[in-house]
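Action item from last meeting closed. Structure (234 res):
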């Protein structure tokens, strides 16, 4: 079996030992996809200083959507997280890490990369993906506005004309709708903005609407991927 075929081999999950960024080796996991997959996928995790890792629940559920559609999916830890070498670099070095992950996927699979990110990972991932011709579409989950003293702005999306999906909760404590929606409305078309009623930042419920909302997040992803890239069924 060739190396490339082994990467595509069904639902196999394996650790990646040859992904390196400018700060050194990056811990990564690849979920194998179907041999006839038309895309690969990359999912970026939330803020390292808030405990974000490739095993984050929202990241995992996003991966499951792509994997369920037969796509090979790469998750990785930014520098200084888990077994990844280097130190936290306030989003600057992490952008280079995301680009290194894109380079790895391109070199290994030679497929267009659908990119998704959660919270800080959405900010970094979309910055990496907007100007990269290898990325035909992007998904931002729990797009942050202000979190633990950090503020985020999205001017870079204004000239980004590739398809974009944004999914957030109406009760997101780090991305309040009144601030986030006007910023995302400035993003270049095509775009779709979905607000999940009663969901907080991590797509969990609130007292008024208890219970996890991750299934609603996944359903919105699947519908957009079907409509935009003819993946799966409604």
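Sequence:
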């Amino acid at each position: 079996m060739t190396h490339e075929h082994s990467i595509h081999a069904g639902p196999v999950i394996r650790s990646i030992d040859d992904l390196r960024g400018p700060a050194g080796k990056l811990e990564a996991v690849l979920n194998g996809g179907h041999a006839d997959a038309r895309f690969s996928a990359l999912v970026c995790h939330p803020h390292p200083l808030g405990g974000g890792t490739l095993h984050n629940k929202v990241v995992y559920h996003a991966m499951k959507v792509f994997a369920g559609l037969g796509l090979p999916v790469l998750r990785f830890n930014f520098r200084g997280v888990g077994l990844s070498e280097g130190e936290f670099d306030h989003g600057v070095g992490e952008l280079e890490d995301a680009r290194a992950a894109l380079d790895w996927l391109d070199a290994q699979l030679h497929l267009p990369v659908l990119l998704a990110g959660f919270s800080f990972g959405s900010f970094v991932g979309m910055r990496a993906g907007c100007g990269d011709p290898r990325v035909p579409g992007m998904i931002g989950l729990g797009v942050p506005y202000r979190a633990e003293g950090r503020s985020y702005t999205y001017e870079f999306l204004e000239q980004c004309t590739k398809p974009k999906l944004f999914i957030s909760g109406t009760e997101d404590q780090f991305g309040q709708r009144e601030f986030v929606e006007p910023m995302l409305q400035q993003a270049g078309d095509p775009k779709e903005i979905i607000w999940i009623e009663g969901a907080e930042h991590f797509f969990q419920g609130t007292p008024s609407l208890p219970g996890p909302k991750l299934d609603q997040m996944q359903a919105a992803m699947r519908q957009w991927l079907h409509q935009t890239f003819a993946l799966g069924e409604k």
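Note appended to the action item: The helical segments are 3-8, 57-68, 92-109, 120-130, 177-185, 214-229.
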